Here is the input.
Amino acid sequence: MCLALLVQARYREQLTLFAKVQKRQSKDEATIAELRERLSTLEAQLRSTIAQNHTLAEENQGYKVRSLSMQESIETLYEDLLSTRGREAQRDETIAELEEARAKDETTILTLNERLLSTSAEKRALAEENKRYEVTLSADLSNAKEEVAQHSTTITDLKEAQAKDQKTIIDLRQQLSTLNPLLLSTSDENRVLAEANKGYEANSLSMQASIDTLSEDVSSAREEVAQHNSTITDLKEARIEDQTAIADLRQQLSMSEARLVRTSAENRDLAEENKRHEADRLSKQESIDTLHEDLSSAREEVAQHNSTITDLEETWVEDQTTIADLRRQLSALKERLTQTIDDYSALAERKKKCKAVLDSKQEYINTLSRQLLSTREVVALHHATITRLKEGQAKAEQTIDVLRKHSAELSIENFQISARNVTLAKEGVTRFTAYQQQMEQKTKAVAYWKDLCMQSKLNPAQAQQVRRRQEESNSGTSESESSTGTIVAQDQEIAQLGAAYRCR
Here is the structure.
């Protein structure tokens, strides 16, 4: 009976122990289910963090690509700046060449002005000499005309006195027939001289008009030089503005390079953080694997509890230890999750900052591109102004060549006019001497006619003297005819020269 009671008591104790073990097993299963749920949530959170890490890595790669594109764009901008600097250097060289050409043009214009002044002074002197020579010629012609008029009056008086003698009248008619061509030649000479004077006046007027045109061309050339000076000053001001813009661009490039260095450092930090996140993920995966292993071991222990009640206490102790370890792991996982969440928020903030920095860099690149476009437009304008300056220089050179040609023609014309004036002076002297000779011949003829008038009252010796005088007068008339022929030929040559000058 005692043994039966003891067995029953032992059985009851075993039943109570089994009930307690079942309760603990149910509690352990509930805790295991909670742990599984927590593990599933943790796995979902880890998956989300992994996905977020992947997205962050992709965004970092995108940032890297953008930074590379920005670096390339900055390099292209730097190359464009170098090209613009080269263009500015070429433009400075062209401006220096244009300034040298302008200085040469100014020197040539000054020399041409001096030559024009000298030619104008020479023309004035020649015009004054021509006027004085015309005055002297007109005085000489008036004196000759007066003398011819006096002689004609004396001849008419002699004709009236010798109307009675037929022979003397016939001789007088012969002498008059010889004198008429001389008078006609003198009148023709006077007409030719008047025409020559008119031609000289026309030439002087044309020369004055050419001088006026030259002065107008010189004034226009000066205006063009002033315009060139104003354009060169504008180019210098534009160059100063370009230099300031280039300095600003350099500062902005240095700032952008510093920002790029910062962004590259931030990208490196992000890469290191991503590596750390990968390491944390691997450690979490290992902990999850360990948890799975612990769960499998717990299941084995539960099976062992079912098989043997004696091992339940030991397994219970082990379960308690494993539960404590799991709770520690859960707290560690929670802490890691909080850290990952904080890291994610920090990464999001950094992402926002990177986006803001990239947006600012994009805006800066856009401003740089706009500034480059503006600088290119300014360079195009400078090229247009340089072409205009070159065209103006070509026009100035053309005007200078025209002025040189015109000055050479004027110098040649002045030399020809001076030579013609010398020849005309010589011809005037020869004509004046010829007129004097004619006057002497006419006086001789008058004396001869007087002698003929008195011939009827003279003796034979006086008649011989009169005949001798008549022979001398005849020889004088032949000489006067030859001199008049030479004078007529000279007048014809002078008329031909005047016609050639008018044709020019």
